[in-house]
Design a protein that fits this description.
Layout lengths: L2 H28 L1 H9 L22 E3 L9 E6 L17 H16 L6 E6 L6 H4 L4 H26 L4 E6 L1 H14 L3 H6 E7 L21 E5 L1 E3 L5 H7 L2 E3 L5 E3 L8 E2 L4 E2 L33 E4 L2 E4 L26 H17 L1
Parallel strand pairs: 2-3, 2-4, 4-5, 5-6, 7-13
Antiparallel strand pairs: 1-3, 8-9, 10-11, 12-13
Helix pairs in contact: 5-6
């Protein structure tokens, strides 16, 4: 028997196998997000789901950050963390979820609490946050998981006001999922209590969609305005579909305390470079500084990079030019790239804005 046909058959089989492997690889790459998302689905209806045990806010273990009574700073910061729990078995995270807590300590706190530590004492509650998976789908189960998370944040805020605040001025800061929950806090707890509202310096809802036609409290329309809300959701210039996708998938609270689609309502857009809700564009020369504080020790001040971005509000979305430095590139796995970035493009701008609004509150 000739060796030539055998070699040809071998080459044919190798080519077939390589072609099949290439097709399979392309398919995995194309549908990788769907595969990961499916793996993070708890695969149990929320109505029959048994959530993890809840927090006891009288115990220090229920708080990421909770300072000792007193202190030299005259104000307080109540911080509601963004999503750090990917998902999997649970719709809502356990309070001691190891990876989620490590991401708060190493990424979220340095970058998003950091701008406010020179302004006030920080109170950051742990809560049974809805998983990242619940933010990638509009299923009713996911909405219920997010509404469930609000109960913890509300209880933490009430405990803080009753036990720790002591009549001090305070700032509310929420990021992404935390911003959505903080938005309802403003409507349910602050706006309905004139005395409490009079003590609120400002609320910053970062990477958060808030309806412009019905914000929870009055928006910040100028610098040095106290008692207002600054909210924005960000997209990069050149990513043409991102603003539309962002607003079409955005969920906001309705009058019944339920999450409903924002569309076709307009979104509120605060420009951190201008310190106001405005459509006026802000050039990069006004940018005080971005920072990548990931991995820094708590309380360490990061290096700022000024004039990195320009920003303008367009159609309810804060359109930002891409930063020049490679320090501000999204990285990590599929899940990490869908969380808030491990850097803060407006670190120095928020720090200065909060100080200015606190001075305005004192003057008022």
């Amino acid at each position: 028997m000739s060796e030539q046909p055998a070699r040809q058959r071998t080459r044919w089989w190798l080519a077939t196998l390589l072609s099949a492997a290439l097709v399979l690889a392309i398919g995995v790459i194309a549908f990788w997000g769907d595969l990961v998302s499916t793996a993070l689905d708890p695969k149990v209806p929320f109505q029959t789901y048994d959530p993890p045990p809840g927090p006891d806010y009288s115990r220090s273990a229920a708080w990421y950050l909770r300072p000792q009574p007193g202190g030299a700073l005259a104000a307080d910061i109540f911080f509601v963390a963004p999503t750090t729990y990917d998902g999997g078995r649970n719709w809502n995270a356990r309070l001691n979820a190891r990876k989620a807590n490590r991401q708060f300590q190493e990424v979220m706190a340095p970058n998003y609490v950091g701008p406010f530590v020179s302004v006030g004492r920080v109170f950051a509650p742990r809560y049974r946050q809805a998983s990242l998976y619940s933010l990638t789908t509009l299923r009713e189960d996911a909405r219920e998981a997010r509404q469930f998370a609000y109960g913890d944040v509300r209880d933490a805020f009430r405990w803080y006001i009753d036990q720790d605040n002591g009549g001090r001025p305070f700032i509310i800061v929420g990021v992404e999922q935390g911003g959505t929950l903080a938005s309802r806090l403003l409507a349910d707890e602050v706006a309905r209590d004139p005395v409490l509202h009079s003590r609120m310096v400002a609320a910053y809802l970062i990477d958060t969609v808030v309806p412009a036609d019905a914000p929870p409290i009055s928006p910040c329309v100028q610098r040095a305005q106290a008692g207002c809300v600054a909210a924005w959701a960000r997209a990069y210039d050149g990513d043409f579909d991102a603003p539309k996708r962002l607003l079409e998938r955005a969920l906001v609270w309705n009058e019944h305390g339920e999450l409903a689609n924002l569309s076709p309502r307009p979104a509120l857009c605060f420009n951190p470079l201008l310190g106001a809700v405005t459509d006026q564009p802000a050039p990069a020369r006004l940018h005080l500084g971005a920072a990548n504080a990931t991995g820094l020790e708590w309380g360490a001040r990061p290096a700022f990079m000024a004039r990195q971005v320009a920003a303008r509000c367009e159609g309810g979305v804060l359109m930002v030019t891409r930063p020049k430095s490679s320090s501000f590139k999204q990285a990590g796995d599929w899940a990490d790239r869908r969380k808030v970035p491990p850097f803060n493009l407006f670190y120095a701008d928020l720090e200065a804005d909060a100080k200015e609004r606190l001075a305005a509150w004192r003057a008022r």
